[in-house]
């Protein structure tokens, strides 16, 4: 799938739910969001059909997201089915880890290739402040369980907020002590995230280098599906990565599209541009018709975001990340 800018789109992120067991301050209000009725969420056969059609068009990598995807039943079974689709090379999952301890074995047996676990702090009070839930032990138990399955690549995602309760060096220690990649993800000015400035990549690098030594650009084989820039540190078992979509814009290399839990195909995180696949799925649309809808969406994929301009355009996305898919 080559878009109008000549970018090869081979990566699909699928949100399977807008529900979550946390209330992170940059993602959701404390009282939660108005949840989508279950009848309006894509069902398992519909997700599989979209994946099959996407694979025929050229999608090779699929990430399952939410909300928190593990609050939805039968995710290991869904991953097993997606892995069986011809043309799909990798299936990955992003989770907050709270429900992972009980499900990790099944996920590994289903063929999961890689796992991203969100962890913004190791400070209990800080965790409660950020997530509004006292569930740090559950996330840490999920990480510990995931480490028992070395065939599933493990990454820890941290969103620096620039608050006192976040010790980024403590998070980086996971890559120091274990074969785990730690990525620092720049705050996206989407929904509630627009209220936070976060920390610059340069400041984080400075903090880490004072503690651990020089970060050297990693030039080996790709470690994931997306645009993360990785670094090696002497003595570290894992890598340190940065996903800085605003300050180090990588739109010219974008290879992804997103499917919301309601079946809306988004071609850029900032904008509402896209197409409703659920309508076609539930109204007798053929696979060829689905392909034409997907191609039409791709033909309108923006050349890039314009977050730094801070101009609210008519088609700027107003949903929060849990509704779009993290």
TrEMBL record:
Q: Where does [4Fe-4S] cluster 2 bind?
A: 251, 254, 268
**Pathway the protein acts in:** Cofactor biosynthesis; molybdopterin biosynthesis
Co-factor note (free text): Binds 2 [4Fe-4S] clusters. Binds 1 [4Fe-4S] cluster coordinated with 3 cysteines and an exchangeable S-adenosyl-L-methionine and 1 [4Fe-4S] cluster coordinated with 3 cysteines and the GTP-derived substrate.
* One GO term of the biological process aspect: Mo-molybdopterin cofactor biosynthetic process
Mind listing the UniProt keywords for this protein, alphabetically? Answer: 4Fe-4S, GTP-binding, Iron, Iron-sulfur, Lyase, Metal-binding, Molybdenum cofactor biosynthesis, Nucleotide-binding, S-adenosyl-L-methionine
Pfam families reported for this sequence: Mob_synth_C, Radical_SAM
Which residues hold S-adenosyl-L-methionine? 26, 67, 118, 188
Q: Which reaction does it catalyse?
A: GTP + AH2 + S-adenosyl-L-methionine = (8S)-3',8-cyclo-7,8-dihydroguanosine 5'-triphosphate + 5'-deoxyadenosine + L-methionine + A + H(+)
Q: Supply the EC number(s).
A: 4.1.99.22
Q: Which residues bind [4Fe-4S] cluster 1?
A: 20, 24, 27
Which cofactor is essential here?
A: [4Fe-4S] cluster
Q: Does the keyword Iron apply?
A: yes
State where GTP binds. Answer: 13, 94, 155, 256-258
Alphabetized PROSITE patterns for the sequence = MOAA_NIFB_PQQE, RADICAL_SAM
Q: Which GO terms describe its molecular function?
A: 4 iron, 4 sulfur cluster binding; cyclic pyranopterin monophosphate synthase activity; GTP 3',8'-cyclase activity; GTP binding; metal ion binding; S-adenosyl-L-methionine binding
For this protein, the record's PANTHER family field holds: MOLYBDENUM COFACTOR BIOSYNTHESIS PROTEIN 1, MOLYBDOPTERIN COFACTOR SYNTHESIS PROTEIN A
NCBIfam families recorded for this chain? moaA
Q: Subunit info?
A: Monomer and homodimer.
Q: What does this protein do?
A: Catalyzes the cyclization of GTP to (8S)-3',8-cyclo-7,8-dihydroguanosine 5'-triphosphate.
Q: What is this protein called?
A: GTP 3',8-cyclase
Q: Which organism is it from?
A: Blautia obeum
